[in-house]
Amino acid sequence: MYDVLIVGGGPAGISAAVYLQRFKRNIIVIAKDHGALGSTTHIENYYGFENPITGKELVEAGFAQARRLGVNIHENEEVLSINGSGPFNIKTNGGEYLTKTVLLTTGMNRPNLRVKGFTTLQGKGISFCGICDGFLYRNKKIGILGAGDFMAEELEVLRNFSNNLTVFTNGESLSVSTHEYPVVTEPLVELLGVDSLTGVKTQAKTYDLDALFIAAGTPSASDFAVRMGAFVNQKNEIEVDPNFSTNIAGLYAAGDCIGGLLQISKAVSDGAQAALAINKYLKTITS
Amino acid sequence: MYDVLIVGGGPAGISAAVYLQRFKRNIIVIAKDHGALGSTTHIENYYGFENPITGKELVEAGFAQARRLGVNIHENEEVLSINGSGPFNIKTNGGEYLTKTVLLTTGMNRPNLRVKGFTTLQGKGISFCGICDGFLYRNKKIGILGAGDFMAEELEVLRNFSNNLTVFTNGESLSVSTHEYPVVTEPLVELLGVDSLTGVKTQAKTYDLDALFIAAGTPSASDFAVRMGAFVNQKNEIEVDPNFSTNIAGLYAAGDCIGGLLQISKAVSDGAQAALAINKYLKTITS
Question: Is the overall model pTM greater than 0.90, yes or no?
């Protein structure tokens, strides 16, 4: 059982890890990749570096810094689901973990689907959470949007509610099995419906649906948050209190995924402050 | 006329300077010394450095980073007074400057005077601001606590209100002229008075006073803030809004002097966020 599992290995996650490790907490960092920072080539506004550095250099320096202090970082591992409510059960593409608290630091949440009808039909047949909403669509016609592990995870959940499932990859190539379920790879051009979703359209064809579950790409922090019942604002940013706690006890978020200034310095500061708050929280639940 | 004058060359000040310089603002940084960070020997929790660094190394890297971008930094220069309200007039031991905005980043405010009676008599004859309160003590018996430039500056102000002035250095050796005014170098052991200050006591003697003005050491950010009418809380931290603005238009503060987590990362983040807010403010006053 970990004290803290940190999802994300960018500035917020590693900053938090460094503090928590020094507090002698039993922690683990799950870092899918170098994130948005990894592709930044010229950073000159993060304090303390005389010469410009690349995002890759900074991320790797962060990993090295944390590892020098003994932080356990699982690179190239992707969190697929978070369940429970203290302890939390985390499933990744590499294993399963139990932890008392979770800190989400996966960076900016991916932009919404840019398909006509998406914005107006959210919550009206468009869902981001099979566990939350699957039951509403028992034995109905369900679409799942996605092409990778995240979609496969959602598919496993939704199979419990209906057998009338179709996977829409929206132009992506499928990287996982969909069992017996049909797959549509054509990009979506429109989501249909007025008061609620009635179907989706590709260039070639229209598909009747009662619900479309979005599980494209990698789950973002806000995807996890929504699934766990944590509040997310209209900009898809996770809502936290001044202690970086969501409304779920033990679930914290820091860095770009909570909005505000999208800068390294702010993420680093968030991480440090979240670490202090988590450390304090752990004292209350272990006493 | 500068757009921004930054008081302090630590993480908050230099972080702000880097952003403002990149916004092509006409700025200057007045840095007295390396501050509290300068004497820190082992920093391993500031994100991005694999190996521990010293505070001196970090401060100097920050100076080099800012200068590489063209930031004008006056090292070893001390701000003595800030007057006006946009433009602000800044007096240092090296010159005078006019600026549209001021950012205070002078680090943690020095602890209060540890002399019996100090806490209870604040605001009751103990003042931190000659310009604010001197008039209340016209022709009264006034003490000034301090031994350097800051005290001399306060003395110049208070001479306008009374000729019955005594300088108390509280054990420090005097480094400036006090003109004709008497000087007491013995440390204070007690401040006397119940409802208001009636005098001060050294080991050897008691001195009757109507007011004691504190101008010891170097003026801290909160000293400037108080003098300018900005709000300071009970912990002597400058109160700022989410834009790092004090209640005085154009006067900003960031880093340790506004309280919160006293860590490099938080100061750096504050500085970046203050810079963005100041840049936005400058657009409103120059349009």
Answer: no
